[in-house]
Amino acid sequence: MPNALKLALMSAALLVAVDAWGQISTLATCTRSANLLACVDADGNAYSVNTVGSTIYLRGFEAAGKRYWAQTNSRYGQLTFFTGIASDGETWVGYNRRVGWTTINRFSSSGGSSARFTCSRVAGC
């Protein structure tokens, strides 16, 4: 699975599971405002997360594949649906469902990738 998709899914899972914008990995340099988080890592990958109401917009650049991507997450209570597209035409859809301290994540992409994984605040992913 391309790194951009992994980064988008993990970013979404992090936002949903932890609900803490300030706890981003030290592997990336981030700038934050009230609604926007923008990060760049040591490999040149970049992404931003913007919130508008219950909708989260993610945009990024994957340095290795030299492709741009965008993802939109729509939250309905404990359920978040997401759709994304990359500059090479790959698309993906999925959802995150929060159950207590656990988040159940499922996605599939036009590139043939699909997965289901569970993340916990205690045990991680």
UniProtKB/TrEMBL annotation:
<keyword id="KW-0732">Signal</keyword>
<protein>
    <recommendedName>
        <fullName>Glutamine synthetase</fullName>
    </recommendedName>
</protein>
<feature type="signal peptide">
    <location>
        <begin position="1"/>
        <end position="22"/>
    </location>
</feature>
